Amino acid sequence: MCRKTYARQPFPVVVFAMSQASREDSTQNSVASVSARTAVRQRAAWCGTLTHVEMWNGVPLRPLAGGYSGETFLVGDEAAEQVVLRIYQRQPERAEVDAALLRLLNGVLPVPTVLETRPPLGDQPAVVVTSRLPGTRLDLVLPASTPERRVVIGRQLGRILARLSGIPMPGFGMFAGADLRLTTDDMPAGGLAGFAQSYRDHGRLAAWHEDDWRRLQALVDDAETLLDGDGGAASNRRVLVHSDFNPKNILVDSGSGEVTALLDWEFAHAGSPYADLGNLTRFERQPDFVEAVVSTFVEQAPVLAEEPLVLGRAADLWALVELAGGVPSNAVRELATTLLLAQARAGDLHAWPWETPRVDP
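Now predict its structure.
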């Protein structure tokens, strides 16, 4: 396939099969501030995981690894000709939002170029086709990185977080439509405490011992107090939040450590400037890496409160509660449950229950 002639290709017939046996949703892609992903799910009923897409314009497709959605595919065989196809079977209305965000951020952050978007048509799902950016997933690079390389990567990620925190938003909410208007429809009510209570009433948190539940309630209260702050600019700013800022969605050059891509914007919203920091460092606690991220973030971001890492951990409680309380269980949910339980029992947002400084979900 040639990109120069891509737009002239006829609308393809996309053939896909739904697997009822594999009902893993995209829980690995969890939010780091208010539960944007929960709102996404509430607006879209689950309709299965795409497990097989045969052809796109006569070219074979290959699933891309890194998450559980099963909706992202590599098109083509020759590296110079390859593009990425995202199929929005479960949430077709998100396609135009993601495309608009990528166009908005092109040249500002390392994001793919949008080549084509197509709305749902009959039984055909919405799709977005983008360029394929070079690089290796960060979760595959970090384990073998030297301390020096971790610092290089951490500093670059701190700069990206600073850029995100410098993109102001008029308020809090999810994006809707190609104009990226904000909406709070279907967002969880009752704050973090009410959100946790919903998983106590109807989710896996119902199985927690009463003592552990009380400790979690106290931790949630502390987190909400931290996030409310003193009412100043550092507390009240709303910015563009990627909301899935974890190593599986970040590509780097394995030689230089240069960050080459920030992928998967399906949970992006307007929210806390500390949310993505909490997401990135949830399972990555190498001290040199975290210090490089935080120090660069503080140096280059607009107004921030003191101790942004603590606020990042507080914001990340939304995601941990959702992961620990939701179903079905999977490796990511179990790690999140272990971490949240440790934090609750210690009464400490920095609690870490593992001997190693990182765990790989």
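The two ends are 35 Å apart (CA to CA).
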